[in-house]
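Sorry to interrupt, but I need a hand with the structure work. I would like you to pick a protein and set down its sequence and fold. Please put the record directly below this note.
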Amino acid sequence: MPFLPHGRRHLWRLIDQCFSAMWTVPIGLFTRPSDVVVVTVPSLPMMASGYVLSRLRRLPLVLEMRDAWPDLARDARLVQGSVKSLFEVFADFVQRRADLVVTVTDGFADVLRARGVKNVATISNGLHVDSLPVLPTPPLERDVLEVLYLGNHGESQNLETAIRASAMVGDRMHLHMVGSGSRKAGLQKLARELKAPVTFHPSLHGQDVLDRYSSADTCLVSLRDDWKSFETTIPSKTYEVLALGRHATAVVLGEAARLITEADGGDIVPNNPKVLADLWRSMADDRSRLVRTGSSRAWVQEHADYGVLSHRYMNLLLDLVARDGARA
């Protein structure tokens, strides 16, 4: 597929998505015979071309909602006002006409069913569990609690809470923040102003990521709590933390909190600097709280391993194609 290189600016990303979506239809019309069209969102222009292509080729349409669109757009104030925007009307139009809608969380699947979307299934994010080692338990004797955040430093994560909490705890802990994002410069400024025990690292890959996980006592998973769509959102790094057997400090709501509780993966706290600081102090005092039993890795193996997920997805596609063949 042709595409236009772009940076982080939303406008150029949208232009690139529109350009690729425009080419999808003519290229898709002349590919080899197919059984189904699968389109992945949040690329909204691609949603339009996927719908058009499925109709032109008379094939069933599978719509993958990787994020809670269009709800997320309203939470982020990309869409405002009490009247539905054209964007929301269009998203609802395609969701209702897709032969199968696939979400990554049960919560958003329930939201779509409540809106009248008929055929909805959940295939969560996941990973190859066997490709990740079981990390050794953190040392029971250590002067400083090592906390790791690895991921996007953007609007959605509300990482200011973690920086303020680390400043309250002081030199009994050290927060390592790995990655990049639109809020990173502001977070670095806040950490300097508060003299917080925080070190910022660039994005890491491969063995460097595992080394960073291995040196951590607990891993931070965070989402802001004032966007309703995040009640049905699970940060993808959650599965990695659980599979590695690291304790999770989870500043999350809804389905993400339920998942971590089910997996016995760590502690759930509200998005409040004082409460988060109290949790980190208590773990610095009693490091036995960091010890995991292996249940979190077993949970991921059963529910979010790519082998399990791909088998479940293939069965959904086979059922859909069989029903379409019977109709034909």
In short: The CA atoms of residues 263 and 295 lie 6 Å apart. The chain has 13 helices and ten strands.
